[in-house]
Amino acid sequence: MTATDHALFSLCGGHAALDFVNSLDDRFGAPGPVERLADYRTLLRFAVATGLLDAGRARRLARLGPGAAGRAMRAARELREALAAALYAWVDGHAAPRKALRVIERHLQRAGRHRELRWERPRPGQALSWDWARGNEAELPVWLLVQSAAELFTSGSMQQVRACDADTCRWLFLDTSRNHTRRWCDMKVCGNRMKARRFQARHET
User: Fold this and answer.
1) Which ranges of the chain does DSSP label H, i.e. alpha helix?
2) The CATH homologous superfamily of the domain defined by 3-204
3) What are phi and psi of 132, to 5 degrees?
4) What is the DSSP letter of 120?
5) pLDDT digits (tens, 9 = 90+) for 8-42
6) What's the whole-model pTM score?
């Protein structure tokens, strides 16, 4: 991951699925959301930056045609908004919307249809390994993301999912702090900003 990628994605969520939802920035801000995944190449860079995709495969996928790339981006954004609906419902103490769950389920089933067992390059002590089917695999980043999200949803780590306390931010993150008291996506950004607002409010009264 380059320094530019770090600035573009700000991977502070602690999990690929959370950082994926956060890639629609200023989701709750007055000016409106800011899209950080502007195109397919950016989606590939995000998948590499979060460790879901290796750089070599990303370069091969980047050579696919605009039609396949466009379909993959539509799928990615649909999945991201379904994940956002489910995750924000969770942190707010509500049941996930049924429509969002059906979208996630559909993407997960589609991903499953493109996995296959292979003899090639199994791990030590294994006869077979799972891999992704070759061919029209433009949606591979989407399949990897939905698989990562499903693993999060069905794990104990869901108890650690939080939203940033800044109302205009609400980026998602895993609270892995010792006392589980983390409040901000990034203390240097939202934490300091909210402290400054409280300081100003106290001195204006």
Assistant:
1) 3-9, 16-22, 40-49, 55-61, 66-91, 98-112, 140-153, 192-204
2) Jann2411-like domain (1.10.3300.10)
3) -100, 140
4) S
5) 677 889 999 999 999 998 888 778 788 999 999 99
6) 0.84
